[in-house]
Amino acid sequence: MRRFRRFYAFILCNYQAKTQNKIIMERRKFLLASGTVVTAAMLFGAAGVAEIGTGDGIKDAKGRRPDPDQFHEPILRALAFGLNAPNPHNTQAWKFKIVNEMEALFYVDEKRLLVATDPIARQIHIGCGGFIALFQLGAGSFGYSATVEYLPEGDYGFPETGKKPVAKLSLQKSDIGKDVLTKQIFTRQTTRSVYHGNLLTDDEFKKIISLSKPEYASVELINDPQKLPSVLELLYKGMEVECYDWNAYDESRKWFRVKDDIAAKRDGINLRVGGSSGFNLWLSETLLKGYPKKLWHSEYAIKGLLKEHHEKVMSSKGVVVFKTNSNNLIDWIKCGQDYARFQLAAYDQGFCMGPLSQVLQEYPSMKKLYDEFNKMMNLEEPAKIQMAVRIGRSAPLEYSYRRNPNDLIITS
C-alpha cells in the first residue's frame, strides 16, 4: 500500500509538472505573440501587487548601499548614511565638494533633474532635504553632530541649480548619541504594493509624529472613511494624467532599469523593488531590454499599469500630507527633512509609505487636477502641499541600490 502511494504521488507530481510547464509555454507563446499585452499585467502592474521580495535585498539595504564603516574620513562616512534617503525616481541627484575630512558642500546634480515632471526642481530639493536628515542621523551614530548651513552662497533659481550649493555640511565631535530613528536607515523603504490591515488611527499617527518630531512642515493625516476614498481617487488621477503626457511618462522610461543595468547603474526604478519575480520578471525584463518607446507608451501597457495602480492606491490606510506656509527653496529642503524622518518613524512603528504626489507637480497638463486637489484640501497660495503619501502595512520587498559617495564627489 505504501509503495502504491509513493507511485501514485510520483505520477501525480509528474502530471502536475507537465501541466504547469504546458501552461507556462502556452502563456509565454501568447505573451510573446501579443507583444504589448504583456505589459498590461506586468509593467509596474502585477509586479507591484506582489508582497514577496526576491534575492538578497529583502532583509535590509546593506548589500545594495555603501557601507559607512568602509570610510575612514568622517565626512564620507556620514555621506554614506545620507545616500539611503528617499528621492524622486531614485535619481540620487546629489553631488559633493569635499572641503576637508569634516566638511562638504552639497549640490544638486543638474544632470539628473526630472525636467518633464519636476520642471522647477521642487521634488529634487525635497530629496535633498531627505539626504540631509539621514546625514544628520548617521553622524550621530558614530560620535558626531552635524551642522547644516542652508544655501551658503544665497538663494537661487532653476538656472543656477547645481551651480550654487544646497547646503554646507559640517561635523563636530559630540556625545549626543544615536537617535532612535537611526536603526531604520537601512530597513525603511518606499513601498509600492497593496496595503493591508486597518486604517491608520489618530493615536498611531500621533506616535509617529512624536518620534519624527517635524520641525518645519505641517503634517496632517486623512483617515476619515467618508473622505479618504475621494482623496485617493483624485490622487490616483494624477497618475492617469502623467501616463498620457508623453514627455512626463517617457521620463520614467529613461530612469527604468532591467537586468544587469540595475546593479551596474545603481540608480533609477525597476520591477524588482515592486516585488516582481520568476517568469513574470524574466519575461518583462526581456521585453523591456533596450527600453523600447513603443512598448512603454502602448495603450495596453498604460491601461494595465493604471488598473494595478488604482488597486494599490485604493488599498491605502490613510493619506499623509506635508504642507508649508510658503513655497520656496528652503521650504522644499526642510520639508524633505521632515518627510524622511516621518518615514523612518512610520517604519519603526510597523507602517510603510509611498508617495502619491503626481497631482502636486507643476507641468501644464497637471494644472487642472492640481487646482482641483488644492480646492479639495482648502489650500490657498502661497501655502503649498509639498508631499502627499499613502500609508499602511505591507511585507517588505527588495531594496533599491545606491551609488558610492566617491562617485558623487566633484573637484570644481
Order of helices and strands: HHHHEEHEEHEHHHHHHEHEHE
- Give the termini distance in whole angstroms: 81 Å
Mean pLDDT, rounded to whole units? 88
How helical, in percent, are the residues?
Answer: 40-55%
| Global outline | globular
Q: Can you offer a commentary on this structure?
A:
The protein is of the alpha+beta class and 412 residues long. It folds into three domains: 2-33; 42-57 and 189-392, NADH Oxidase (3-Layer(aba) Sandwich); 69-185, 3-Layer(aba) Sandwich (NADH Oxidase), CATH 3.40.109.10. It has 14 helices and eight strands. It has helices at 2-34, 37-42, 46-49, 74-82, 122-140, 202-212, 228-243, 246-254, 260-265, 278-288, 293-296, 299-314, 329-348, 367-376; strands spanning 94-100, 103-108, 144-150, 167-173, 218-222, 319-324, 352-355, 384-392. Strands 1-2-4-3 form a four-stranded antiparallel beta sheet, covered by helices on one side. A four-stranded antiparallel beta sheet has the order 5-6-8-7, with helices on both faces. Helix 5 crosses helix 13 and helix 7 (228-243) runs antiparallel to helix 12. Residues 1-55 have low confidence and may be disordered.
